[in-house]
Specification:
40% of the residues lie in helices and 17% in strands. The chain has 496 residues and is of the alpha/beta class. The strands form 3 sheets. Strands 1, 2, 3, 4, 7, 8, 9, 10, 13 and 14 form a 10-stranded mixed beta sheet that branches. It contains 15 helices and 14 strands. Strand 13, helix 14 and strand 14 form a beta-alpha-beta unit. The N and C termini lie far apart (90 Å). It folds into 2 domains: 316 residues, Rossmann fold, CATH 3.40.50; 127 residues, no CATH class. Helix 4 packs across helix 13, helix 5 packs antiparallel against helix 8 and helix 6 packs antiparallel against helix 8. This is Carboxypeptidase C (Cathepsin A). Keywords: Carboxypeptidase, Glycoprotein, Hydrolase, Protease, Signal. Pfam families: Peptidase_S10 (PF00450). GO terms for molecular function: serine-type carboxypeptidase activity.
Length: 496
């Protein structure tokens, strides 16, 4: 009797394991296809939305994780081979692709006001500026973001959660996706935002070298440092143009600067930063008291922070302190990712804000919109929680050479161009550091003619401001048009 019960127990356990594996395998590879229409730039057209999951396999061919995606394809296109494909990632590194998906390039737009603030009722509407008129788009949620999950509890998480591990498995995943959707002949573009710029910069080279997939363009939206060294005086000095832009927005600069337009004022601050501030900070304690007073006065002139406070901090004003200090006398803090946003702290004293005013605002509007959109318009129904920010453990940042990898990919592929899009009020990935990336990922300057920079009067997610949403999408259209070569034009270098 005891043996019989033991055998029955073992059978039940085995059946449970098999059933669990079967359910995981089934969930790993799914697709729901829906039909829609949208009007972009005055033209109405149809498109399909394929929402689903595609596996990540180990070397034995077992599905160890599943990556969620949404793939939009315009339906009235006759020549799919010439139709560009845009592959979109957000950042974090633990963030889903929700941000650019329903606020920037996708066919649906979350409900917010013209400056990006939440309004009710929550939801989505048509995006009249979507990129879908000129390119098909896939939005990808890396493992543990969005609806993507690890399926095998015994899987080594280090193969997902690190700069180079992330790039490696996603390159394999993209190979499968492009093959399944028959998009190998298409001109291909990667677009990444924030940490997503680290991801796509590394993917550009990994796709070429490991998957033999060559790109036409990489778009870096609010780029990170891309592994390019900038410590010490360089890091301290490069913040100043961002400080000036934010102070200008909040009318905290002297009248002579305040009366200028933002983009007329910033070149003056950039020149001061590189030609005066950087050398002064590099001198450290060897700077004479008179020189220190003079440079502090100029720093105050361009930042809205008093010279006395700057001197108290040895000419080193951190971004977190700036967010607290700039409007301290008015009782407000300014946002990290978008310094147009205001916060109210428990007390005016202190060295950093209590919370991120801008991120709180964005989560307010994005969370209900994306959950509503998947279930009610894309017909994707699941009890799995959508992770706007998911658990990715201790991210391995070692070996981050993504900026130099992007340069190498450009050198190997004459077709490949890079576009940088930055908001002037972004204090996390500021616009002047984005320019510094371009200068130092290719210090020879030989590839500068294949790079371009666009700045916008908003923050990290510059597209949340309606005017910048329209302009930035148009900049993407121009970039795609300019980087799609005419038929028969070879990818080669020619000696002058």
């Amino acid at each position: 009797m005891k043996n019989r019960r033991k055998i029955i127990g073992i059978v039940i356990l085995v059946c449970s394991i098999i059933q669990g594996y079967s359910q995981r395998k089934q969930w790993a590879d799914t697709a729901v296809v829906t039909q829609h229409e949208v009007t972009v730039k005055g033209v109405r057209f149809g498109y399909t939305a394929k929402t689903g999951t595609q596996p990540v396999w180990n070397e034995a061919g077992d599905a160890i994780a599943t990556v969620h995606y949404v793939y939009y394809e315009r339906t009235d296109v006759k020549d799919r081979e010439r139709r560009p494909l845009v592959i979109s990632f957000n950042g974090g590194p633990g963030s889903g692709s929700v941000w650019m998906h329903i606020a920037y390039t996708g066919p649906r737009l979350l409900t917010i006001d013209d400056e990006g603030y939440p309004i009710q009722p929550y939801g989505v509407k048509e995006n009249p500026y979507s990129l879908l008129d000129v390119a098909d788009i896939v939005y990808v949620d890396p493992v543990n973001t969005g609806y993507s999950r690890i399926l095998d509890p015994k899987a080594d998480k280090s193969q997902f959660f690190g700069v180079n591990a992330d790039i490696k498995y996603l390159a394999e995943w993209l190979n499968t996706f492009v093959t399944r959707e028959n998009r190998w002949p298409s001109p291909k573009y990667l677009i990444g935002e924030s940490y997503g710029t680290t991801r796509v910069s590394g993917l550009a080279l990994e796709l070429q070298n490991a998957q033999w997939m060559y790109l036409n363009g990489v778009v870096l939206v609010s780029p990170t440092g891309l592994g390019i060294e900038r410590g010490g005086p360089v890091a301290k000095a490069l913040r100043w143009p961002y400080f000036a832009a934010t102070a200008w927005f909040h009318k905290a600069l002297p009248a002579e600067l305040q009366q200028k337009d933002l983009t007329d004022m910033l070149p003056e601050v950039e020149a001061f930063t590189m030609n005066e501030l950087l050398p002064a900070i590099a001198k450290g304690g060897s700077l004479s008291p008179e020189e220190k007073q003079a440079i502090a006065a100029k720093m105050a002139h361009y930042s809205g922070i008093s010279a006395g406070v700057i001197l108290q901090n040895n000419l080193d004003i951190s971004t977190s302190f700036f967010w607290k200090e700039l409007l301290r006398d008015r009782g407000y803090t300014v946002g990290r990712l978008d310094s147009r946003y205001l916060g109210i702290d428990f007390k005016d004293g202190g060295e950093r804000p209590d919370y991120a005013a801008e991120l709180t605002s964005w989560l307010h509007s994005f969370t209900p919109a994306i959950n509503y959109y998947y279930k009610n318009q894309l017909n994707y129904k699941t009890d799995v929680k959508y992770n706007l920010f998911g658990p990715v453990g201790r991210w391995d940042n070692s070996g981050n050479n993504t900026g130099l990898n992007l340069r190498q990919a450009m050198a190997q592929n004459p077709y490949l161009h890079v576009l940088v899009q930055s908001g002037y009020y972004d204090g996390a990935c500021d616009y002047f550091n984005a320019k510094y990336n371009l200068w130092h990922m290719d210090p020879s300057g030989r590839l500068l003619d294949r790079t371009s920079f666009k700045g916008y009067r908003s923050g990290h997610m510059m597209y949340l401001r309606k005017q910048d949403l329209e302009t930035a999408n148009e900049d993407l259209r121009v970039f795609i048009k300019q980087t799609t070569p005419a038929e028969g034009v070879p990818a080669k270098y020619a000696v002058d």
